[in-house]
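Quick one - inputs below.
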Amino acid sequence: MSSTAGSSRPPAFAATPWQIGDVDVVATDTHALLHDTLSGAQLRVTGTRLSRDAQYATAPRDARIRLARAGAIIALRSRGLYQLHASAAVDPTGIAWMFAGPSGVGKSTLAYALARKGWQILGDDGVVLEPAPGGAILHAWREPLQVSSWLASEFPELHERRQHENASDPRRRIPMYAPNLARRAPLCAIIFPRRAAVDCLTPMSQTMALAELIVQSSQVLLADRETPRHFARLRDVIAAVPSFRLEHTERQLHEIADTLRDAAI
Amino acid sequence: MRYRAIPEALVATLSDGAVLLNLQTKRYFSLNETGTRIWELVQQTADEETIVSSLLREYEVEEPMVRAEVQRILDELVEAQLILPV
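Output:
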């Protein structure tokens, strides 16, 4: 079953504004216009082609990075590749486990805990999903792992990198470098973590999983003529790949590899 | 009363229900199996009475319970701006 519009009439895709961080995105039938709200600079994405406006060249470096990042996300989407707000690690057998959810649920921490066990990292705050027959392939999205310095009692090596702590970050995160990086791997399962008082891994309903995944990948559903196709592809991934809710305590910082191994059996 | 779905609504049906997305409000809505069937019946431009009688034929449940469930889900779909009374 593919996604369909709510009636026999075609969906109305007016130029609908969306946001990727500080970048406003207005999609039309022919292109997406990206506007950096802090600098005023703009970038136009037509298919996979990016074109800059006059202000782009003089915009601060941070603004150019924001626009380029958002532009890359939109351009990837036009090729059927979806950047998701998730972390992912590849186990010793070569399959990827993705952690999706809002900031603060433990995505980066769990990925880092797996990296310490020798798993390869695909991404910390983002990965790229490529739907494939019967499942999906995950591709790397390179950004340093960010681990809260509050976890130094669990991960003693954080003490050595205290000087890199981001003082303006409420979670006082420290950029950490995973020793083993992966470029791509088949997706084995999607985990939706949540901090809790008791550790518990339970299968999640497909509707709940799709609904939660949409929230972490809003740009995939930027309203244009391609939206029904992208929505259907996300649905196909959820229908093919098992999803789990992981309620976790700090104990999982040391046991997550075993927990996932048990889930795979 | 009859209802129609808005054109900006997308639906993805899964094994345990469906997820509806309103592209206008950028809000999503998940439906269980019964809710999904009600959505399908609304798509067929059925009115409330037709939806109730269809569900009574398909499920072994008491009419008051079906009627209350249909009303609740239709109200929620209206509230989510996914369907409109016509």
